[in-house]
Write a structure and sequence with these properties.
CATH superfamily of the largest domain: Ribonuclease H-like superfamily/Ribonuclease H
Order of helices and strands: EEEHEHEHHHHHHH
Mean pLDDT: 92
Keywords: Exonuclease, Hydrolase, Nuclease
Strand content: 5-15%
CATH class of the largest domain: Alpha Beta
Number of domains: 2
InterPro entries: QSregVF_b (IPR024530), Ribonucl_H (IPR013520), RNaseH-like_sf (IPR012337), RNaseH_sf (IPR036397)
Radius of gyration: 19 Å
Number of helices: 9
Pfam families: QSregVF_b (PF12843), RNase_T (PF00929)
Distance between the termini: 31 Å
Protein name: DUF3820 family protein
Helix content: 25-40%
Low-confidence stretches: none
Amino acid sequence: MSAYIFDTETTGTEQPDIIEAAWLEIDAPTSLQVVSQFEQRYQPRHPISLGALAVHHIYDEELVNCPPCTTFQFPAQAQYMIGHNVDYDWEMAGRPNVKRICTLALSRMLLPQLDSHSQSALMYYFFRPHARERLKNAHSALADVQNCRFILQKMLALLEQPVQTWEQLWELSEQARLPRVMPFGKHKGTPISELPPDYQDWVLRQDSMDPYIKLAIQKARQALHQPPITTNAQ
């Protein structure tokens, strides 16, 4: 099974282009040994926003002689993509046909007491004596995937039952991604299982709704032996 910890730096939130990509190919969740690594900068089609520049400190003029961002390709043999808030980088990679493992969701499930679950915050939580040094290059794509690997290693050690395969870790990530409470709207903070039935129906009919919110509602209905609603997508 091919699994890659993946990260990108981009031009910003509007019309984003990849300007830097990096991955670590990892052998197995039992060891997290690096099989290969990749890092490359790209020339974007759009200017880098000031907000993005303030995060990654990559200048447009540094990318003039880099390959076009349109040439980026995620490894075709990959079966799993691992990342902190992995959906963003999956989108930037062109939505490859892989199973996504989200370390952000896992950290929220395993460490609910923390006031922040950003990758930098987790580095301070797990590696306080050395975190500041390790974070000097944070928001460099390669540094970020390396730090993600360190964090994943620590989180796997928290599990009562060791994870043996990437499929098991993906299933755990999928469980972690299901919201326990409604994250927004007029019922924000309400447990998913306690949402009014008519509001559940409305959420399930929204084509643009987060699929994990829909799945959480469907699972809550199943637990209560309620028939699932037919959505527009079905």
